[in-house]
Specification:
This protein is mostly beta strands and about 190 residues long. The chain contains two helices and 15 strands. A hairpin with a 5-residue loop joins β8 and β9. It binds 6-O-phosphono-alpha-D-mannopyranose (M6P) and zinc ion.
Length: about 190
């Protein structure tokens, strides 16, 4: 079988900020995620009083989403909280559950939070230089628990697909909140399987 040759290329990553030049930029604001933070009243209060707020940005290197490719992007999560809960990404399963992912910490500090289909939750602390592994079958979300932007590089198989619906419906069973200045996992009161 013959496949059309793709031209090799490179991208320029700013290792301090996580910005990739000439990437596709996706911006997620609080209004995109208003039902994902556990304290929905706090989310509505922020939207009414401060207006919308940038939670995170994704800088994606444009590539075809197909088997054989290695998709890669950076994510920059801005510091802050909604109620007690730290700023975070939406989180997703891969549509193909058997696809893994690698994260490399670049700046700031946070957690990779993973959840199995059965609702088991794990937290992996991340900082600059951390290589965090998302094994097959785990939903994954990242959380900024620090006071500065948390940035990391991600790479995953091109045919993984993003399943957001499952997490949108169920949420994560545990949340990362600020308790006396410490990031702490607590049960999600809205959690249902
Ligand atoms: C990482 C990767 C991307 C993902 C992004 C933001 O860069 O896992 O695939 O899109 O984080 O996370 P989410 O899509 O859950 O909002
Ligand atoms: Zn993923």
């Amino acid at each position: 079988m013959s496949q059309a040759l793709m031209e090799p290329f490179s991208s320029q990553l700013n290792l301090e900020t996580g910005v990739i030049a000439q990437a596709q930029i996706i911006r997620r604001t609080l209004s995109d995620m208003r039902t994902m933070f556990a304290d929905r009243a706090a989310a509505e209060r922020i939207l009414a009083e401060e207006g919308d707020r940038l939670i995170y940005e994704v800088y994606a290197v444009p590539l075809p989403e197909e088997e054989g490719q290695i998709l890669h992007s950076t994510t920059i999560i801005y510091p802050g909280r909604v109620g007690d809960e730290f700023h975070m990404t939406k989180g997703h399963f891969h549509e193909k559950r058997a696809r893994a992912e690698i994260y490399v910490g670049l700046a700031g500090e946070g957690y990779l939070v993973l959840q199995s289909e059965e609702g088991e939750v794990r937290g992996v602390p991340m900082q600059r230089g951390t290589i965090a592994y998302v094994p097959p079958l785990w939903a994954h979300r990242t959380v900024n628990t620090g006071a500065t932007p948390f940035a990391f590089l991600a790479a995953w198989p091109g045919d993984s697909g993003h399943d957001y619906g499952t997490i949108e419906q169920t949420g994560f069973a545990r949340l990362l909140v600020n308790r006396d200045g410490q990031p702490t996992f607590v049960d999600n009161p809205h959690w249902r399987r």
